[in-house]
Amino acid sequence: MKEILTRRECSAMRGIAILAIMLHNYCHFIGRIVKENEYQYLEQNNNRLWQVLTNPDELLPVHLLSYFGHYGVPVFLFLSGFGLVMKYESAHDDVRAVGFLRYHYLKLLRMLIVGFVLFLMVDAVTPGRYAFHWDNVLAQLLMYINVLPEPDKIIWPGIYWFFGLMMELYIVYRLLLYRRSAWFVVGLVVVCWLLQVFCDPDGETLNRLRYNCIGGMLPFGVGILFGRYAERLNIWPSSRWLWLAIVVVAAGLTLLMSFSYQSWFWIPLVIIVGTIALVKVVPGQVLQLLEWFGAVSAAMFVAHPVARKLFITVAWRQDIYDGLMLYVVVTIALSWAVKQIIDRIPSPKL
Predict the structure, then answer these.
(1) Dist. CA 153–CA 208, nearest whole Å
(2) Handedness of CA 275, 276, 277, 282 (dihedral sign)
(3) pLDDT of the chain along its 350 residues, tens only?
(4) Distance of CA 229 to the CA centre of its chain
(5) In whole angstroms, what is the distance from residue 91 CA to residue 59 CA?
(6) For the whole model, what pTM was predicted?
(7) Exposed, middle or buried: residue 283 (CB in 10 Å: 0-12, 13-18, 19+)?
(8) Is residue 40 within 8 Å of 203, Cβ to Cβ?
(9) Exposed/middle/buried for residue 178 (C-beta within 10 Å: 0-12, 13-18, 19+)
(10) Cis previous bond, 149, omega within 30
């Protein structure tokens, strides 16, 4: 049976996701650029987006990357759910919960510790040094910092909230979803959606829920279901033109759904479908380049905050594209170097 998603395409999807996240995390730090709706739904951000769309200028690409780039995170969550099914649910032997969680915690820590140490050193010698507290550093390294009050004020660099989220999802997967009925997965996704949908759009409750596994359950659950059932469904387009049409429709829906609080919750699903379609239509050489970025995506994830701390001041001086170019070049080179370090740390054993 032909795979609906090959290893190459999964790696390319990771490449797209990390590029979106890396560019977003630079662009949204620039003062006058449109901000995203990631953890809360803020009408003023949508109003600013509409302004720049109807009155575009030379900074339009930066505005779009700032507003939409964070949707690389749901792509990673989808691939994580998909990968867990492929790795663990096709095997005949059950995996013990303690061993599973220990293994995945150490895999995350192996990446986190390298980037975090580099960031601490750069942060200590550059302007705007962050006031780290020992308990928050411990919570970050043990990956429970997401559940503490006001996570957006204590997680620094902010991108590292993803490690706590992933650890939560690993716990949920092994204890609740591993080889459980598809209806149980769907039910948990619905419960997590209901917990969010009645919150104040700009409230702190929604903010905290979306920093944790409740906010990430939709793309993660879709990845699990996709891994179990996608190849059984004979509904996938066979034409590149149909895949291209899906890319265009997904882009349009993402924009339209951003202007409604209720539809905003379901944008990750559209993003996932659009990203799958995109890797089906890109030329071979582009796919190969995206594969390379996918191969260094873990290193780039932990390394790009270091490059941002060094070069965001260029953008603050209004040399936005100059700073962005320097940031991208340094991030790519630094990611390659960080990957060499991570690869030399012994891998945990399951």
Answers:
(1) 11
(2) positive
(3) 457 899 999 999 999 999 999 999 999 999 889 999 999 999 999 999 999 999 999 999 999 999 999 999 999 999 999 999 999 998 777 889 999 999 999 999 999 999 999 999 999 999 889 999 999 999 999 999 999 999 999 999 999 999 999 999 999 999 999 999 999 999 999 999 999 999 999 999 999 999 999 999 999 999 999 999 987 877 788 889 999 999 999 999 999 999 999 999 999 999 999 999 999 999 999 999 999 999 999 999 999 999 999 999 998 887 899 999 999 999 999 999 999 999 999 999 88
(4) 23
(5) 50
(6) 0.96
(7) exposed
(8) yes
(9) middle
(10) no
Please give the single-letter amino acid code of residue 27: C
Q: Give the DSSP letter string of 191-247.
A: HHHHHHHTS-TTSHHHHHHHTSHHHHHHHHHHHHHHHHHGGG------SHHHHHHHH
